[in-house]
Amino acid sequence: MQCAIYKGDRKTDTYLYVECEDDFSRVPDSLLQLLGNLELVMTLELHPGRTLARADPDQVREHLRSQGFYLQMPPDKDRAEFPGI
């Protein structure tokens, strides 16, 4: 599964994964507003055996299939900035 990873200019260490580059149609508007202007960081193939630094690749693939995006948030101490997500 191919995916594109973006970072916003409002939340540090927070990354938004989507299936297709520049397709945010399944991402809630409220989340897009929280993240601010998005910048493409990279695209990659999420194949079995792939490892990611801060996310479980199986969970990322499942979220991409079921909801169309995956949000990689900073360590637990900063999660209070994302109420309801």
Helical fraction: 10-25%
Largest sheet: 4 strands, antiparallel
CATH architecture: Roll
Give the radius of gyration.
12 Å
Contiguous uncertain segments of 5+ residues: none
Number of helices: 2
Classified by CATH, the class is Alpha Beta
- Care to count the β-strands? 4
Structural class: alpha+beta
Tell me the series of helices and strands, N- to C-terminal. Answer: EEHEHE
| Strand arrangement across the biggest beta sheet | 3-1-2-4
Query: What is the CATH topology?
Result: NE1680-like fold
Distance between the termini: 24 Å
Beta-strand content bin: 25-35%
Q: How many structural domains are formed by the residues?
A: 1
Anisotropy-based shape: globular
- Full CATH superfamily name: YcgL domain
Provide the residue-averaged pLDDT: 89
Please outline what is shown here.
The protein is an alpha+beta fold and 85 residues long.
